[in-house]
Amino acid sequence: MPSRRDFLAASATLAVGLSCLGLSGPGFASSHLMLTRKVPASGEALAVIGAGTSGSFEVEADSAQYQQLKQVLKVFFDGGGQVIDTSPNYGGADAVLGQLLEEGGWRGQTFLATKIAADSRAAAEAQWAATLRNLRTDKVDLLQIHNLRDWQRQLPYARELKAQGLTRYVGVTHYVDSGLDALEGILRNEQLDFIQIHYSVNSPAAARTVLPLAQDKGVAVLINRAFDDGRLFAKVKGQALPAWAAEAGIGSWAQLFLKFAISHPAVTAVIPATGRPDRQLDQLKAGSGPLLSDAQRKQLIEQFG
């Protein structure tokens, strides 16, 4: 495990490197303007590149990895990021995020999304109280029913919390193709502000029905698993980017996978997770420059299908 001395040395090296490249501080944010999309329910504009916390934020507070996450968040906010998605069942990630946001003074810059993952009203109420404590806040921006778990009971509870001013938006999530039919049914029959679903070059099924339906119904969309939990990087190891990538301002496979997701017009933001500042910096670059054409997206689906 890296020592604090190792972390400080690495942080200094990173800061020098970013500065030399012109990719840190106010210059980065102003010269790489992040594309935004509006939340249909309100017209609020959100940056298209957000962040997740699953895995990457499951660290010990005040460890070297925790200190590195401070650099990750600094890069994120300096680059125009807003949306951060977490959950009470991500191994303590919400408490780590809450502490980091408080220490960094970033809560006011954060569109904070979390979830209910419970099987009864009593469990949900206890979980919600713990969520507010862990996130060190009195309200969140988006409260989602995690993977449709007990959604018939939990969605009305989330709406109660919205009516009380404890969340501004409510929604539901899923992460695999087997949940698409149920999600489609809920979209057709329930009033939602957001959905969160998987969508990637090797898992594009959401674009057949769920994403167009969300667009028609005026529901914002967060995209998870744009990297297929990292498996896509193994598939492209050693491979060159498509010839047209540079024209779209794409300099890495991570940027390409993220740009594929945000190029669908129904998508509001994509939420990749990382615990490394250099990767965070790379991911943010996907939020600027041209979007992919229908032909380019089709080519990628055929390549990875």
From TrEMBL:
The cross-references to Gene3D superfamilies, in alphabetical order and at most eight, read:
NADP-dependent oxidoreductase domain (3.20.20.100)
- PROSITE patterns, alphabetized: PROKAR_LIPOPROTEIN (PS51257), TAT (PS51318)
* Classification via PANTHER family: D-THREO-ALDOSE 1-DEHYDROGENASE (PTHR43312), NADP-DEPENDENT OXIDOREDUCTASE DOMAIN-CONTAINING PROTEIN (PTHR43312:SF1)
Source organism: Pseudomonas arcuscaelestis
Where is the NADP-dependent oxidoreductase domain positioned along the sequence?
49-297
What is the official name of this protein in its record? Aldo/keto reductase
